[in-house]
Amino acid sequence: MKNDFQVIIIGCGVVGAAIARELSKFKIKIAVLEKEADVSFGTSKANSGIIHGGFHSLQGSLKAKFVVPGNRKYDRLCEELEFPFERRGELMVAFDEDELRILQIYYKRGLDNKVPYMEILGRERVLEMEPNLSPDILGALYAPTAGIICPYEYCFALIGNARENGAELLLNQKVSWIGKNNNSRFVVETEAGNSFTADCIVNAAGLYADEIAQHMRITDFKIVPRKGEEYLLDRRVGTLIKRVVFPCPSSNSKGMLVIPTIDGPVMVGPTAIDTENKTDYSTTREGLKEVFQQAQRMVPGVRISDIITSFVGLRPAAVGNDGDFIIGKTDVQGFINAAGIQSPGLTASPAIAEHIREVITKEGVKMELKSNFDPHRKTVCTKIRHLLEKRDFEQYGKIVDKNKAYSKLVCRCENVTEAEIIAAIRDGHTTLDGIKFATRAGTGRCQAGFCTSRVMEIIHRETGIPFDKITKKGKGSEIAPYPIKKGNGN
Amino acid sequence: MIKNVDAIVIGGGPAGMAAALSLKNNGIEKVLIAEREDFLGGILLQCIHNGFGLHRFKEELTGPEYAERYIDFLKSTDVEVLLKTCAIDIVSTGKKKKVYLMSESSGLIEVNAKVVILAMGCRERNRGNIAIPGSRPAGVMTAGLAQKLVNRYGYMPGKEIVILGSGDIGLIMARRMTWEGAKVKAVIELQSYPGGLNRNIVQCLNDYNIPLYLSHTITNIYGNERIRAVDVAPINEFREPLKENTFNITCDALLLSVGLIPENELSSNAGVCLDKVTGGPLVDSNLMTSISGIFACGNVLHVHDLVDWASEEAEDCGKSAGEYFKTAIVQAKGIPVKAGHLVRYALPSTLEPGKPGLISLRTIAPAENAAIIVKAGDSVLYKKTHKKIFPSEMQRIKIDTVPENADAIHVYFE
Ligand SMILES: Cc1cc2nc3c(=O)[nH]c(=O)nc-3n(C[C@H](O)[C@H](O)[C@H](O)COP(=O)(O)OP(=O)(O)OC[C@H]3O[C@@H](n4cnc5c(N)ncnc54)[C@H](O)[C@@H]3O)c2cc1C
Ligand SMILES: Cc1cc2nc3c(=O)[nH]c(=O)nc-3n(C[C@H](O)[C@H](O)[C@H](O)COP(=O)(O)OP(=O)(O)OC[C@H]3O[C@@H](n4cnc5c(N)ncnc54)[C@H](O)[C@@H]3O)c2cc1C
Question: What is the number of the ligand closest to the CA of B45?
């Protein structure tokens, strides 16, 4: 039956995608239902992109259980799935005696969590490693295993590979009802009017995981978003820092960080404010001030005038659970939670996925390894900008000779060509934001002023979606919704 | 593919076209224009309103008509034009320049040239550059993108419009959207004076009763999928919004007309020094940049409000580039030009002694009964009093002869 699966995963953020990829190693029928027009449109697109070393997490928590094993899996994942990842290391810096003592606490915590190769460094060493740090710092806790990734590229790679191995991804499918039928199997209905059946459900719905669980009368947790504003600086500012830089943390967040991104520009943020509103994606004047005050204290070269864009991420924090992850089986046979996955959820996601696989096995789903599972991504589109950055014109010339679409520049700031846009569309990205995340077109300093209409033309040509129906991020966000009637123009 | 030419012009807008023609008129044989769009004409192609060419052609043309004149001039020459061809890198080693082009029809082209003229124009500042708080829905875009969607594609981004910034593109779009049946509810400007030309305020806003809020800003953007409202607040002298006077305007599109930035990534990759104020290359009186053999003109050098001046500057640029080609003049030995009281910038950064000079400048703020003065030591080279002068209007000042032994030339208002 078409809409019948053994496992249905609700939500395609990094957690849902990592689980889908893990399960695609086995001979079972799986589907991922995602309410948005593309994957990774929730919290997984708007975060700091850090693969944490693991010294922040309190011992005994699920966060601590999954963070270091998650971190360890990244080398292999990156090799198999070809997403950019670099182990740059992270520094927690101290400005006074009290903070130096705090470093000791986190060093100890790191040891408990089995974070490898940590060191407490003196002022000289730190400034030697990061000359743009404030000369006022006194020392730092250093975890060299921390890394940086582009979170949505990671998510795309996971779900892309899962699909190559048979998993089904269904977009624009907002789950609106879940129940059990006479055979004790799950029935899942979506707003789009589709109905699905499954033996097992994995709830990876991020901010909405509490509402999904309520369908099964599981009411022991509630998700309260904790909002984080982040600001991205112009590439021109250069690489002020090579490693992730943290202050000593406050009670509910890791503080404002200065973060090198894998694509070069520096990012600062995030704030941490609880909000009742799951759609509050607005940045604020206060947030901006707070971020820059704190960031400038650590790295004085960070300036407000260099901002090219900003965004908000909402951490799906579970209350009634000390803010820890909610992972595992529930009172409802076959209904499994992967909920409340706030930071360091990105880091932990590969380890969470393996754990969920074990839970599913215990819930009675027969798991037999596929012989033909291919861990490598089949289609990885060449990114021209990497060649141009290195001025490798010889290699670029060769690629262009094979496919002329590589010589049609669509995004001038990030050097993205038509070939890359087409590849992204064929990969299932049909909104401007989706294509932006998949290719970087529109992420540069002109913020899509130049490429918007060009990308729209290509979407229209490749998919047949009418020009006025092309959206930024799904229904309701059309870019140019009103055709001008011929005859009344000037 | 490898191409050898005498001169390459990057960008085929009004500046690039005029520069190429001027190179030809000054005896340069092999001239190439690389233009990344499908047509020559640059920004003019989307400016279908009147108001171009009053100085050049003594008549009022639309943008495309003005461009057409130059395209026709070019057709009568053997200037080679490569369309759908984007310059992606310039490598300068000694006298030799290599320009890499990405061409839709021929792939990668490596161009060897002795002279490079930069004429890449400028781009619009966007929301990120001005950090407006709020959500990030659809319907927020630069006025230039809206102009492209409306004029070149025939689609409207919204029906109830708010415009932030009173730059010329925003003003022109206010009128354009009104003509297409949209309601333009407000134009919001942070400064206490308009950013665009006065004639545009009159013809695009006043004639259509569109309110202009000076000394106001947008403090919040609402809407998840699509924008549904903005908060507008007056500002105090420290540019802080006054919370108690905030009001809300519903809208389904917000257009940004908050300034232009010369497009100089290519230039700075090549090693050309840029001016912090204009965002364009530092040039001498020959419009040559800090790298010998690389010249710049038009909006890539500094933002022009009138295309006529962009064309004129490009002509001068082509002329001195031609001179350079023939005689290999090195950097013109120059007397530094210094911007003084009320002058935002004065260009070029040096003038050549004993020769006539041309200075472009803008004020920092509007002024009344102000005199522009150009002085070398004690001698006044130029003085003219203006009843009113606005930052939106670029001034071009001709100096008959630059004195031989001055330390500096000072440009200021009194
Ligand atoms: C500002 C910020 C910075 C962060 N920085 C880091 C960091 O540096 N390192 C780190 O390790 N972690 C970090 N995190 C945490 C990390 O981003 C999250 O842990 C992770 O993205 C959670 O992934 P997820 O898949 O659980 O949630 P999401 O990405 O939110 O995925 C849930 C998905 O479910 C979908 N969905 C919801 N309801 C339904 C429904 N009814 N039907 C169908 N689909 C539905 C949503 O559309 C969404 O796509 C940060 C978080 C924030 C907010
Ligand atoms: C909305 C608007 C309204 C205006 N109204 C008037 C008016 O009413 N009257 C008036 O006189 N003036 C007006 N102007 C000003 C005038 O149009 C400009 O000053 C003039 O167009 C500048 O010419 P340019 O050639 O320097 O730049 P542009 O016209 O921007 O041309 C630059 C060209 O370079 C190309 N290019 C850029 N980078 C590359 C690359 N790497 N490789 C290849 N090609 C590249 C671009 O595609 C473009 O075609 C207006 C300007 C705007 C924006």
Answer: 2
**Quick one: CATH architecture of B1-124+260-332?**
3-Layer(bba) Sandwich (3.50)
The distance in angstroms from the start CA to the end CA of chain B is 56
Does ipTM top 0.85?
A: yes
Q: Which helix (H) or strand (E) holds A421?
A: helix A418-426
Residue A487 has pLDDT above 50, yes or no: no
- Count Cβ atoms within 10 A of the Cβ of residue B170 and give its class: 0-12 exposed, 13-18 middle, 19 or more buried: buried
Q: CB-CB: which of A280, A283, A409 is closest to B86?
A: A409
A185–B contact, CB cutoff 8 A: no
Give the model's pLDDT for residue B330.
67
> What is the fold of B126-258?
FAD/NAD(P)-binding domain (3.50.50)
Q: Is B179 exposed, middle or buried (0-12, 13-18, 19+ CB in 10 A)?
A: middle
- Provide the pLDDT for residue B405: 85
Average pLDDT of chain A is 93
Query: Span A276-301, mean pLDDT?
Result: 92
B92 interface with A at CB cutoff 8 Å: no
Closest CA to A311 of A27, A36, A81, A42: A42
- Which residues pair with residue B290 across a beta bridge? none
Residue numbers of B between 348 and 367 with CB closer than 8 Å to A: none
Res A490 pLDDT > 50:
no
Query: What does the pLDDT average to over A333-352?
Result: 97
Q: Which residue of B has its CA nearest to A305?
A: B129
- Cβ of A400 under 8 Å from any chain B Cβ? yes
* A52 is annotated as an active-site residue: yes
Q: Is B290 exposed, middle or buried (0-12, 13-18, 19+ CB in 10 A)?
A: middle
Map out the domains of chain A with their CATH numbers.
1-85+149-221+320-379 (3.50.50.60), 86-148+224-316 (3.30.9.10), 384-469 (1.10.10.1100)
Contact of A487 with chain B, judged by CB distance below 8 Å, is answered with no
Of chain A residues 213-232, which have a CB less than 8 A from chain B? 231-232
Q: Which among A308, A404, A452 has CB closest to B107?
A: A404
Give chain A's end-to-end CA distance (angstroms, integer): 56
Q: Are A302 and A208 a contacting pair, CB within 8 Å?
A: no
Q: Which residues of chain B have pLDDT under 50?
A: none
Best probe of the B interface among A36, A482, A486, A488, by most B CBs < 10 A, is: A482
A-facing residues of B in 273-332 (CB < 8 A) are none
Q: Which of B268, B184, B192, B197 is nearest to B237 (CA)?
A: B192
pLDDT of residue A489: 39
In DSSP notation, A224-273 reads EEEEEEEEEEPGGG--S-SSEEE----SSS---EEEE-TTS-EEEE---E
Q: Whose alpha carbon is nearest atom 45 of ligand 2?
A: B11
- Identify the band that residue A488 occupies on the pLDDT scale cut at 50, 70 and 90: very low
* C-alpha A383, offset from chain centre: 20
| Per-residue model confidence as pLDDT tens digits over B141-157 | 999 999 999 998 999 99
How far apart are the CA of A397 and the centre of ligand 2, in A?
Answer: 30
| Residues in contact with B85: Cβ distance below 8 Å, sequence separation at least 6, in sequence order | B34, B35, B36, B101, B102, B103, B104, B109
Distance CA A84, CA B310 (A): 44
**Collapsed DSSP state (helix, strand, coil) of residue B188:** strand
Taking contacts as CB-CB distances below 8 angstroms, the residues of chain A near B108 are 393, 396-397, 400, 407
The alpha carbon of A10 is separated from its chain's Cα centroid by a whole number of angstroms, namely: 16
Which residues in chain B are contacts of A488 at CB distance < 8 A? 179-181
pTM assigned to the model: 0.88
Contact A308 B128 (CB under 8 A): yes
- Residue closest by Cα to atom 13 of ligand 1: A343
Length of chain A: 490
